[in-house]
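Project standup — Tuesday

K.O.: blocked on the structure for the chain from last sprint. Re-posting the sequence here as requested.
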Amino acid sequence: MKLVDSAIKKPVTMTVGAILLALFGLISLYRIPIQLTPNVDLPEVSIETVWRGASPLEVEREIIKVQEEQLKNLDGLEEMTSESADGLAYIDLMFEIGTDTDEALLRVSNQLERVKQYPDGAEKPVIKSGGRFETAIAWMILKPTDGYTGVLQHEYDFLDDHVKPRLERIPGVASANIYGGKERELHIIVDPDAMASRQVTMNELVRALDIENKTISAGDFDEGKRRYIVRTVGEYESEAEVSDVIIKRIKGAPVKVKDIARVNLGFEDPRMIVRAKGVPTIVLNAVREPGTNVLTVMKKMQETLKELNAGVLKERHLVIEQVYDETGYIYSAIDLVKNNIYMGGTLAILVLLIFLRSINSTIIVAVSIP
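H.V.: unblocked you, prediction finished:
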């Protein structure tokens, strides 16, 4: 009763308190992230480095150990795990709770810049927030439309250049991944008999192709009031340029690539095959950043998909269809809570009306229920 007496004697204080409670409730309602499950993971950053053709032992020795040497001194680092596989190096970094993910990404990037040199053929490390097996909030498949005459698996490069960057620019999307396609690559198919007759070894072929495929700066010079920059352009731009590369000279006669091999632009062997209703295709997913509102992220992503389907994809007679949406479960859970609130509130008002037998008193209590 003392609480009730105090509330009656100090109406202004109680009014201010009620307003503050309502204000904090509204702020929490719009600030708390809505997601299917609570985020209990530590801030996580993953690093993936591709070195095609290398064995796990070589990957560990030439990439993993070199990167770990630079990353082990990161501020706030709790745990570091690594994994080496055929042609792939993977490092997962776990930071302290409360660490800002963007700040952690910047620190990791700065540390990796200190790695002096990677093996020949190793690609640049890819850094992203979230773990390697982070659950995707959406899955999409590529489908053809009327007029499409190509092969869906050959659209990997197109998706990697136009669709994936657009999805990753969406606020709240940590990464987008492509599965099931074939990347375009240059094939050099050698003739063993031709190599033997011209006394050309595989090492000589590889060395010649590597040396010629470089653009080298040759300095600069002044001519009057003008300054000219000189460089030697050597990067391959066509199959013919590769075919004309001179491997060696035998008694003054040049031996070119086309003399011992056949050059053609093709596609790599698939590392995985994805089918939709029995038809080989390509799938994409989207992984959100920890702590973001999944409903807002999904809404923006669906808007982006509509733009892509009406733009660059329509021009190629393609369409991306979303086949999995995590927000469906979230919306159903929210609707269930709303229905329980309405039903519980209605039943509470009916019980009060039966026992109090006063409409005015029931209305007062009913207004306080929300």
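K.O.: great, moving the ticket to review. Residues 327-356 form the longest helix (30 residues). The two ends are 24 Å apart (CA to CA).
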